[in-house]
Amino acid sequence: MKVRLHLEGKYIFSEEEWDKIHDAFEFFVDTYKLHKYDIPVYIKFPKKLDLSSTYSSSSYGDISRGCCMTEFRHYGSKITVERFILSITPGNFTKVIETIFHEMTHVMQELRGDIVRQRDGSEVYKGVHYSVDKLKNPTYNEYRQFPWEVEAREVATEMLQKWQKSRNIKQTFWQKFVTFWS
């Protein structure tokens, strides 16, 4: 698995933070044994994400600060994954790491075959079909209840705790507070 951090975030983080970003990514890849996949993962750090087409909610303060896009290759009738692009807005650094874990869970779901995207825009998640109508412009609460999002939140929280414990990283009260309420 490869990660390429785009220059958009070059001056956002300190050298120490970049090292932690790389370490957290590798920690996830090692934990879930994703090295066997040779599909690049690009991580971008734009200042802002336009998620208005994803949620029919006027308040974006509560939503995750990340998004995972899959780019596909077409070989005749066969479609394969070409790369994953994660876009994560900078902010509270602990939340950035947790968001990397969240978005990497979506990468893992696709690599494992848990999510299968259909040509008509619908998706199949662990054998359950989700129609285009159900996926198109869900409310924020509907979005949060999609099972792949529930799994991603659970894995991200667990991975953050394991990563911090393995690296002996202590959270301040405010980091715990922000992580708990996001």
Description of the structure:
- It is a single chain.
- The protein is of the alpha/beta class.
- 42% of the residues lie in helices and 21% in strands.
- Strands 1-2-4-3 form a four-stranded mixed beta sheet. Strands 5-6-7 form a three-stranded antiparallel beta sheet.
- Helix 1 runs parallel beside helix 2 and helix 2 packs across helix 5.
- About 5% of the residues have low confidence.
Compact description:
Helix content is 42%, strand content 21%. The protein has helices at residues 15-31, 93-112, 132-135, 140-145, 147-166, 173-181; strands at residues 2-5, 40-44, 66-75, 78-88, 115-117, 123-125, 128-130. The radius of gyration is 16 Å and the shape is globular.
Instruction: Give the radius of gyration.
Output: 16 Å
| Main sheet: strand order | 1-2-4-3
The succession of helices and strands, N to C, reads: EHEEEHEEEHHHH
Number of helices: 6
What's the average pLDDT? 84
Sequence stretches where pLDDT stays below 50 over 5 or more residues: 55-64
Beta-strand portion reads 15-25%
List how many beta strands DSSP finds.
7
The biggest sheet amounts to: 4 strands, mixed
Q: How many angstroms separate the termini?
A: 28 Å
> Which outline best applies?
globular
The helix content, as a percent range, equals 40-55%
State the secondary-structure class. Answer: alpha/beta
What descriptive keywords fit this protein?
three-stranded antiparallel β-sheet, alpha/beta, 6 helices, 42% helix
